[in-house]
Amino acid sequence: MTAESFIAQKAVLALQSLYGVEVQASTLQVQVTRKEFEGDYTLVVFPLLRISHATPENTGSAIGSWLVGNVPEISGFNVVKGFLNLLLSPLYWKEQFVAVASDPGFGLLPATGRTIMVEFSSPNTNKPLHLGHIRNNLLGASVSELLKAAGNKVIKATLVNDRGVHICKSMYAWQERFDGATPESSGKKGDHLVGDCYVEFAKMEKEDPSVLDKVHEMLVKWEEGDPQVRALWEKMNGWVFDGFEQTYKALGISFDKVDYEHDTYLLGKELVQKGLDMGVLVRDPDGSVWCDLTADGLDRKILLRSDGTSVYITQDLGTAERRFAEHQLDSMIYVVGNEQNYHFQVLKLILGKLGFDWADQIYHLSYGMVELPEGKMKSREGTVVDADDLIQKMYEEAKATSNESGKLDGLPEEEKERLYHMIGLGALKYFIIKVDPKKTMLFDPKESIDFNGNTGPFIQYTHARICSILRKAAEQGIAYDVASVPGDVTLSPKEVRLVKLLAAYPQKVAEAAQALSPAVIANYAYDLAKEFNQYYHDTPILKEADAAVLKARLVLIETLASVLRKATGILGIELPDRM
RNA sequence: GGCUCCUUAGUUCAACGGAUAGAACGUGGGUUUCCUAAACCUAAAAUACAGGUUCGAUUCCUGUAGGAGCUACCA
Question: Domain A387-571: which topology?
Answer without folding.
Answer: Isoleucyl-tRNA Synthetase; Domain 1 (1.10.730)
